Queue: 2 jobs
Job 1
Amino acid sequence: MFLDSLIVKNGEQTIREIKFHKGINLIVDYTAPNSKKTDSGNSVGKTTVLRLIDFCLDGSAKNIYSDPEFKDSNEKIKGFLTQQNICINLNLIEDIDNSDSRRISICRNFLQRSKKIQTINGEKYSNDEFSSKLKSLIFKTVSEKPTFKQLKSKNIRDEKNKLVNTIRVLSPYDTDVAYETLHLFWFGIDINQDKDELVRKQNLENRLQARLKKESTLSQVKQTLLIVDSEIERLTVKKDNFNLNPNYESQLDELNAAKQHVNALSENISRLELRKELILESIDDLNRGFSRASAEHIKKMYEKAKSLIPNLQKSFEETLEFHNNMIKEKIDFISQDLKQLDEELFADKKSLTYYLLEEERLSKELKKSGAVEELQDIISELNGFYEQKGKLTEQRSVWEKSNKELEEIEKSLVKMSNEIESKDMLIQEKIADFNKIFSKFSSKLDGVHSLLSAEPDNGIYKFSISNIEGNPGTGTKKSQMASFDLAYIAFADENKIPCLHFVLQDQIENVHANQITNLFTDLVNQVNCQYVLPVLRDKLPNDIDITHLEVLSLSSKDKFFKLS
């Protein structure tokens, strides 16, 4: 799919309408380089086009009004978007050279509940349905993984991790398994497996077993049970030698049954509370990960760094915001089992209260039966061993259940890994075909022959990029991303793999002038794609005529949302 147009409306009034074309699409900031510091290009909203396109493709609204390029205008932008009738319309087209080809029209606003607008081709969708529908329309797959947000991440390079990593474009909390699924999908291998969820369950079971080992191992539990069973057998024989009235035996059986219920419920409550504690500990660990650094202190540090590195693009506040958002999402993910645990705990504690009362009642009745003191001592000791047996039996059960769960998980993971490794020849062939394009593009752009490789590592296919010449610098890293993104679109077209035919790239100014010239005048034109770049005019080579490349011009007097 290609970008056709982006339209921003306030009610019926059109604020911006951007028409995209094939090739280079520039959002140019014409703020004069000798303007006041407050009028620099970091306040006109040149990256907003990228953020709005991302928003329409199931991105976060906060990335727009929390964008540090607006600095002190954040609250003004937030109020403008959330209190006005602002609608963002993104129109995609399957073949930009054929106006009659299939189209996707997306519309979203920033309001909530009944006023919320979230449509695809005029039809409303919930949040989950919205992402799934876009995935099926664009990437033509119904597999659960990779998610739509993961699939689009490579094409919208506007955040720190996507600006420093060519293929590791997901959040810091995504696992190697998530990358394996994504990278294989890029090359037309849809494994349709949820290895990531299995790995998360495996990690939780390993944490549970580490906690259990602090008390005792499974072997210790089994050996202790043998001794306890022997003592129960001895005391039971001794108890049976007493000649008691018939009612006493039946009442004693009822008492033992009540005690067994109490023991079983107590152990189950302990087990549930242990799992709840593990989840809460994880949440506490994550909460401590929220950065609480002083914004004022950070600002002073940033200003000092700015004086040393004039081209510094990002503020530390953005990194804090991104970091904390990722932690919050993970907290939400691991908190989803707490409600069920609390319901089970409530039910078990209610039952425990009932059997404790029964135990008390029966004990009082037995005391009235005139049993000898020696028998009571035997029964008391016997009950103690039964309580110990209940605890040990529950520990053994938890251990055995966890071991079985881990065994099943490991079997499933091995099976999945074997299925993927059986396709190794196909994977390597596809990577070889991709490298023919990638190496050619990277060599032409910056003289570095970059290569992609993949190999299994502990059951997980790991992809990496290397080059013949050595580690790239900052500028070369940006050009490597450009080479990779363009090479991938060319590769996907050759192999008929559905993909987004546009790349949104921020901070292209870090690329050397000669590389920018090659990108603008040669490389992009070799690929059936769109390359959308927000740039400062004074950072571009003066010898490039950008008139036909511009799709939007901005300045300190004409900001994106046209707010003063």
Note: The chain has a mean pLDDT of 83.
Job 2
Amino acid sequence: MLGSTAVGAAYKNDFSLPGTDSQTATDLFKKHGSDQAGDSVEIVFKYTAGIRNAKGSVEPMLAKVKDMAGVADVRSPFTDASAVSKDGTIGYASVTLDGKTEDVPKEDVAKIIDTAQSIATDHLQVEVGGEAARNAEDKAGPTAELAGIVAALVILVLLFGSLLAASLPLITALFAVGGAIGLIALASLIFTVADFTPPILMLVGLGVGVDYALLIFYRYRHELLAGIQPAEAGRKALDSAGRTVFFAGCTVIVALLGLVALGLGSLQGIALAVAITVLITMAASLVLLPALLALFGKRIQRHVLKQQAKATQKGRTEGNRWRAMARAVQRRPIPTLLVGVIALLALSAPALGMRLGFADSGNDPKETTSRHAYDLLAEGFGPGFNGPLIVLVKGDQEAGKTVQDKLRTTDGVAQASPALPSEDGALSTVFVYPTTSPQAEGTVDLVHHLRDDVAPPLEHSTGAEVLVGGATAASQDVSETLANRLPLFVAVVVGVSSLLLLLVFRSIWIPLKAAILNLLSISAALGVITLVFQHGWFGAQPGPIEAFIPALIFAIVFGLSMDYEVFLISRIHEEWTRTKDPSQSVREGLASTGKVITAAAAIMMFVFGAFVLSNDRMLQQFGLGLAVAILLDAVIIRCLIVPAAMQMLGKRAWWLPAWLDRKLPKVSIERPEHGCP
């Protein structure tokens, strides 16, 4: 962490996707020296007395901007009649940057914003829009992270009744997260790591770190209650719960590394960064936490035994409430199972209509200049003006003119600019403004219509190559590519995880049940995200779901769900091995793990849920999705559906064909001789 502070970081977004029309268009722009190779920002003006009356203030400011670092060209609203609204009160200047948004330093864009807004008055409104302007604006402080830490500490204190005991899992997580963020910051100097990665690392690292440390600490506490001395209790906790943590951590890492195969630069960077974070938090739980337990073992032992004595005096036995709940589920397993599954399916249903995309300035907080610019442009020029499609024509000027004439009369197109030639004359560029907003389904349909129905006949008649690009089309390409590749990714992760469970528990039904239920919790979480952020429930602004969200949530939640699955089922398996009584095994397994699973889930739910407080739409979706998935997994699945399913399966839950049992290698997580009391 200290090293990264001294050296600094170089986070950079990379949304390139080779093989798509939008990426091909961008590459051609660069090759032929077109100004459109660089992204742009718009300086938007509103003057009720008429924008042309503000020329004396606007022109000198634009001259300053043109000479600034990172600027390739500036097009004034006074030299382009189409850059002024029909009523003359709103106009914009296009500032073409000398590279893509991710390549232009934020400091340079921030100076453009400051220079532009320096001429604003009570009567002249000046705002700056575009993706580069969005990225350059100041971000909110770490409110979500702090809220999550406080919530975790409160829950741990309530769970253990001791500030010392509560602080050990949290200290372990914080050290791991600090080390991970520092390491990733240094890695960003060499590799492509997106600039929104650090808050995601904090989010995942805190949740996973506390979760892993808590599972080991809780097993340690059980060993102390059984009369084991602290040193031996630490070894037994590592030899049992430590194996669970190692298995769960490896599952998350495998799932995250699977994201690398999806082939998108920024997503690959996020996946690697989060995988490293999980690896470090897992290592901290297996190395740092045992060291802390060895240091404070005697004090923790005194407190634990004192608590047990008080509970014994009051006639309370730990786990009785969970045993009672398990008995209630076992009396009516079929209704319980049906109610739980139907509830998850109902929540999952909205995910079938999920639209993937990326947030734009229209989703920004209302106080930002990028949002003000977006609203002004929509007011003056129509909703599609904020998301122009850039149609590239690789051919002569006559071909460019023919394409422009056709585009101008195409359904769904509000306006098509004149064909702009590149420096070498080999390309022409037409800006196409849809009649619908950038995130609207109509704009998605227009991109497909232009590519599938309009471009082929034009290419045939002109002999030119016609490509539809621009930021709006590129976002769509990325979203559709991720959506198409996601099923294969899910199948591989589910297959690998199920194989590991098959090896561990020597059962056909356990991995099948785990895979189905984990997928149900994830799909239900995606359904909730769709209701809130796509349909605008609870006051959220409607729009598409961030394209990265389903893949990231699946990778992380599937691994965490396996964590709870292994922790619960391994305790049930211990009891089954000892008693061969399936009903009692379920009751004792839930009694031993229900409290810690619920506490761990509550901590992660608050840590993840705190990110709904963020101003970043992607982090809001990410935090809500993880929080809902963990809540459903811990409450509905682990406490209701799993006990009901295990009761219905009975002895068949541990069935494995003899021939397969002989061929599979022996793998063990929990050792029966180390059972919890």
Note: The radius of gyration is 29 Å.
